[in-house]
Amino acid sequence: QLLVYVAMPGCDGFPNLDSKESYKLIVSKGSMLLSAEAIWGVLRGLETFSQLVGRDENGTYYINETEIVDFPRFPHRGLLLDTSRHYLPLRAILETLDVMAYNKFNVFHWHIVDDPSFPYESSTFPELSKKGAFNAMTHVYTASDVRAVIEYARLHGIRVIPEFDTPGHTLSWGPGAPGLLTPCYVVQEPSGTYGPINPILNSTYEFVTSLFQEVSSVFPDFFLHLGGDEVDFTCWRSNPKIRAFMKEMDFGDDYKKLESLYIQRLLEIVSSLGKGYIVWQEVFDNDVEVRPDTIIHVWKENLLTPYKEEMANVTRAGYHALLSAPWYLNRISYGQDWMEAYRVEPLDFRGSPEQKALVIGGEACMWGEYVDVTNLTPRLWPRAGAVAERLWSNSTVRNMDDAYARLSEFRCTLLGRGVQAEPLYVGYCENE
Amino acid sequence: WGRRPLAARAEPELSELQVVIEAPDPGCDSFPHLGSSEAYHLTVTEPVAVLKAYEVWGALRGLETFSQLVHEDDYGSFLVNESEINDFPRFAHRGILLDTSRHYLPLKSILTNLDAMAFNKFNVFHWHIVDDQSFPYQSIYFPELSDKGAYSCNLIYTPADVRLVIEYARLRGIRVIPEFDTPGHTQSWGKGQKDLLTPCYNGGQPTGSFGPVNPILNTTYDFMTKFFKEISSVFPDAYIHLGGDEVDFTCWKSNPEVKEFMKKQGFGSDYAKLESYYIQNILDIVSSYNKGQIIWQEVFDHKAQLKPDTVVQVWMANSYAHELSSVTGAGFPAVLAAPWYLDYISYGQDWKKYYRVEPLDFPGSEEQKKLLIGGEACLWGEFVDATNLTPRLWPRASAVGERLWSSRDVTDLQDAYRRLRNHRCRMLRRGIAAEPVFVGYCAHEGR
């Protein structure tokens, strides 16, 4: 019998950034005790316990005497799924949540809508999914689906942070919200195509307020991810009314100022709804005024903007940072790329200890351009496990041979649990 | 949904597809081979469509095409356009290589893959069945090979399993060409066959580790004679793949007896000659069983003496066009794999790069080019098993399938993209978990 003692469970609440996930596990002859401050630590401890139990050739279950005191290094350990580039059926999301829990991930970053499709069924604006989903009957998440995801996640100690990315990445919003997106112009005429959300209309901000009012009530987490990445200015530039606005505001030719104007208003709206926000790094890079408790999500990695520099800049400015740049798991390549993900040291950048304390964790991202239910699980696991360990374990845990041995065994464990995790390298599982 | 308008219900109906096989021996009871006829003529017109082929293999291809012509309308009715199609493959050898040694593949995976191959008109299953890491082939004459060499006792292919694969393939017009790769890639053979592999030496002492098959012992050739007798009878195809790639000479060089043999044979220090000596013996053995041989390019490159119809498989990516020239220039048939190593995954729509390959883009005469008999998409198993095989192979391999079947001028990428997307959705409907080509959705995928 495993005795579980929890000081202040909080079973009816939702996990949050400050939840206590520490636990103590003592296995000795005659007694097994798992103790934790909160239920979230119990969940982590139970997962560890389940991984300690082995089975011998006779089929007998056994466990070594052990004493474990464990707690996560970073409080935000997330996984991003993209349900816009490809719809993911509910079962795929729920299965992913299961495996996240096996890996002690505690944040599901739901990048739910984007340019290609709008699968989120909004009660305030039903036309959004009616006109914007790939198929309004079969490729949507109903209110009940969303509730199911949130509750399933909660029971696994996982926060659900939805991302409604604006003002770019919004093409699918257009059909269901006429007048929301900027009409692009070719010479003097509308071209028929659309660009980012139109930042100069009052109707835009009325819409945004209503939508985020709904989103704030549907999703219980304190944080919302507001996106703000990759805003293409070409369409804004082409639109005469926007050009006129730019002149009026004295913005010159600096469209970053227009983007900032939009973002600032959006942040105010979301703030007044009682939510905190996470934004992609461009919002910070473009000097938008953000609240001190804003979380900046660092995702870019190239010669111009190496992510370590960005981490230094973001934290030097006093903001909290989330790291994803080296963990874009959708960027597949030949060989054991889990090693590269594992070797990342999130705090390896130039900064003071106070700065480094502002790094609250990171997220493995599985963008959906080439991913749907046919290949999601093998592409995610066990590779994401490397990120999970990097975010939970001590920075000193980095021996590659040891990690390989444990990760390949864990992969077999996943197989045994019915998860189609792909192989790390040649070999086989006993339970195959 | 409303009722269909009255006029529409008077539409022409297709009530029958007649299949006519013209050859006196249609081939239904035989195995497909390199020279099989896969051409067909399909006429779709009401009320009876006719599919004519010389041999049953052409009928299979035509039936696949017919199945792709049928589409569903919004009311759930099945429709097919009036068409007349005269079709035949550009290349006769259109293969998929699967590797069941780096990872065991359960029978189901292999059979599902044969289905997918048939949907893509592939006609050769190149079964790279054993290698260094494991020996899952259960041999009748040498049961110890898999007893000791398989990953575990249940991760094997019994004779019944093998027969099932061969018959399942045959019914789909697919040849099964087994590859028993020697003298390199044979670590797992040594577990169950003592003294087969060369003991490596260091400072005059055996190290305990082993290298390639030992080419100097008579016992080696006694073993191979018996082993390939079994293989020749188990696998009905006219060809056996004998491997011959990546032979590491280090262990041979370290072994005093091998060094002695080199001296006696007058090979000097050219171990490629020893490799050729070995391979030639194996080729002779297999020849004596009336089987044709396929070998990897190194065997040709190292100047072994090959029988006239030996097929050389070109796999090294570096200058493969040059290699094709050399191989065909020397008068040997060639199979191209080099640009189609599908295990080399990368981010993005890499199917395009496979599609863009033009196999005959190498310097050579008309006669030479005729010797390029086809190609193979290879899915080596280092990072592949049943959990990710299907999405990794399909629909990427479909690009190779079309390149090998269709005419040289079928190259429009935009058109291919549109058709490939449709085809991917079709494979999904048929239970093949092919991965997406790009952003989007399939009409029939579910919640």
Automatic annotation (TrEMBL), chain A:
Gene Ontology annotations for the cellular component aspect, listed alphabetically: lysosome; membrane
Name used for this protein in its record: Beta-hexosaminidase subunit alpha
BP GO terms, sorted: carbohydrate metabolic process; ganglioside catabolic process; glycosaminoglycan metabolic process
Catalytic site positions: E230 (proton donor)
Subunit comment: There are 3 beta-hexosaminidase isozymes: isozyme A (hexosaminidase A) is a heterodimer composed of one subunit alpha and one subunit beta (chain A and B); isozyme B (hexosaminidase B) is a homodimer of two beta subunits (two chains A and B); isozyme S (hexosaminidase S) is a homodimer of two alpha subunits. The composition of the dimer (isozyme A versus isozyme S) has a significant effect on the substrate specificity of the alpha subunit active site.
Domain Glycoside hydrolase family 20 catalytic, first and last residues per copy: 74-394
Family annotation (Gene3D superfamilies): Chitobiase/beta-hexosaminidase domain 2-like, Glycosidases
Protein source organism: Manacus vitellinus
Function, as annotated: Hydrolyzes the non-reducing end N-acetyl-D-hexosamine and/or sulfated N-acetyl-D-hexosamine of glycoconjugates, such as the oligosaccharide moieties from proteins and neutral glycolipids, or from certain mucopolysaccharides. The isozyme S is as active as the isozyme A on the anionic bis-sulfated glycans, the chondroitin-6-sulfate trisaccharide (C6S-3), and the dermatan sulfate pentasaccharide, and the sulfated glycosphingolipid SM2. The isozyme B does not hydrolyze each of these substrates, however hydrolyzes efficiently neutral oligosaccharide.
TrEMBL record, chain B:
UniProt cross-references to Pfam families, sorted A to Z: Glyco_hydro_20, Glycohydro_20b2
Top EC class for this record: hydrolase
Cellular component terms per the entry's GO annotation: cortical granule; lysosome; membrane
Entry keywords, A to Z: Cytoplasmic vesicle, Disulfide bond, Glycoprotein, Glycosidase, Hydrolase, Lipid metabolism, Lysosome, Signal
Keyword DNA repair: no
UniProt record, GO biological process: carbohydrate metabolic process; ganglioside catabolic process; glycosaminoglycan metabolic process
Catalytic center residues: E246 (proton donor)
Record carries keyword Signal: yes
Family (UniProt): Belongs to the glycosyl hydrolase 20 family.
Assembly and interaction partners: There are 3 forms of beta-hexosaminidase: hexosaminidase A is a heterodimer composed of one subunit alpha and one subunit beta (chain A and B); hexosaminidase B is a homodimer of two beta subunits (two chains A and B); hexosaminidase S is a homodimer of two alpha subunits. The composition of the dimer (isozyme A versus isozyme S) has a significant effect on the substrate specificity of the alpha subunit active site.
Protein name: Beta-hexosaminidase subunit beta
Organism name: Manacus vitellinus
Taxonomy of the source species: Eukaryota, Metazoa, Chordata, Craniata, Vertebrata
